[in-house]
Design a protein that fits this description.
Number of domains: 1
Number of helices: 3
Largest sheet: 7 strands, mixed, barrel
Structural class: mainly beta
Helix content: 10-25%
CATH topology: M1 Pyruvate Kinase, Domain 3
Distance between the termini: 32 Å
Radius of gyration: 14 Å
Order of helices and strands: EEEEEHEEEHHEEE
Shape: globular
Number of strands: 11
């Protein structure tokens, strides 16, 4: 609905990891660039269509509860940004403003087997309804900090991806 596109949420978590398989490091602010995604995160410069991952707090809470661990920390999902109060687009081409940055959604963050390593059943719980979040490329870099506003600028029709 047109009115829903202007609903403003907020940024409630920021995280990165310097190397593959390392634990996530939570931050209060981060620089996001066109070249590297979250500065200091190992994926941003290597995967231009997956520079940033965004997770919705509401979706994470439902998935963690369905998997039997409602208090599981959001960083178990290994996403860069945690947002709340806004429905993320569920299709490539969606555009989200987070603080000073503008991020273009490139697809669904399809949960991998590492999610079941964190908690049995989490992969399936995250796959339902795009609960695992979205992957993005950076269109406009800048500084993001906790409590920054989050706004969906473009929300194309949803696409559904099935697990193999």
């Amino acid at each position: 609905m047109p009115g829903e596109l202007h609903k403003i949420g907020r940024l409630t978590g920021i995280a990165r990891r310097a190397k593959r398989l390392e634990p996530m490091e939570e931050l209060t602010s981060a620089r996001i660039t066109l070249a590297a995604g979250v500065t200091g995160d190992h994926k941003g410069s290597r995967f231009p269509n997956r520079q940033i991952t965004i997770l919705s707090l509401e979706a994470w809470s439902r998935a963690a509860e369905d998997a039997g661990e409602p208090g599981l920390p959001w960083t178990a999902r290994r996403a860069n940004l945690l947002v709340e109060g806004v429905d993320l687009p569920r299709a490539a081409g969606g555009v989200v403003r987070v603080g000073e940055t503008v991020l273009e959604i490139t697809g669904q963050t399809v949960p991998c087997k590492r999610m079941d390593d964190a908690l049995s059943g989490l992969r399936k719980a995250l796959h339902a309804d795009w609960r695992g979040g979205v992957t993005c490329r950076v269109r406009q870099g800048g500084l993001v900090k906790l409590q920054d506003p989050v706004e969906v600028l473009v929300s194309p029709p949803q696409r559904v991806i099935r697990l193999p």
